[in-house]
């Protein structure tokens, strides 16, 4: 039976993650995402998604050492980045640089280590090309920084604050994986042909680039910028509702209740209240907006989605909008590679049928 866009069609059985939109649950390896990431670093969460278990002390140390070692980009990748026109969109540059990442030393490693290498290299490639775009010198990675802290360092050349690192790392851990989304499906289709991991990630990046999938929360940024202060919230939202405009950051295609990722980001923002004005504004604005939506659109049950608090976090660290979708990809590469490895373990090539409707 034909289902446009394969909506509702089960094409994969996976042990990596599950999304229950009716109950508002996202699970990593069967565990609620909030329980998984609580007190865990980016590295630990990635290990859990890749291997289905938590690393012991030795395994975690080995993983961290691998991630640090792969921050050093091969010379030819830096040269290609320098040759690309500065006006090249960042997602296009990421796709190009990842496609060129294959080299003899990389090919000699296992697929699992390749996943680690690509996860470590992607933020470095992103930061490097961003710096070239804005006419700034490239910044070398820091071995004494964690994954998220190093990414922020390489973008700005300044040591990020604890608040900035904690907020962004929470976002990265929450968006590593989200079931059979379009980019993850693209990665699995590519690897199912017995292609390589680099090609699978390139396919995923090309898919993530599309605004229907990897659309950045720039609309929420604009909303926060218009409000600026707590006393303007009601006026800005009322004006938008009077004009019949959508309130960006509210509602989700999958979740019929609150987006669990938004709930966790909100909790993190509550923890950080008083330390950043944009995070403070978002936490107050949500309450006002929900009340106004309930008054004007009763029964719709519109809740914040992950983009609302993600935008507040991006705004608080002054992240340029062109880095939003690339940053999303830097998190999601963990899920892409986990799915590609799982596909390799029990592979059948994807070969759906088509229905001819021409003359």
UniProtKB/TrEMBL annotation:
Keywords: Transferase. This is Citrate synthase. Pathway: Carbohydrate metabolism; tricarboxylic acid cycle. It comes from the Bacteria. Coiled coil: none annotated. It catalyses: oxaloacetate + acetyl-CoA + H2O = citrate + CoA + H(+). Transmembrane segments: none annotated. Belongs to the citrate synthase family. Pfam families: Citrate_synt. The keyword Transport does not apply. It comes from Planococcus antarcticus DSM 14505. InterPro entries: Citrate_synth-like_lrg_a-sub, Citrate_synth-like_sm_a-sub, Citrate_synthase, Citrate_synthase_AS, Citrate_synthase_bac-typ, Citrate_synthase_sf.
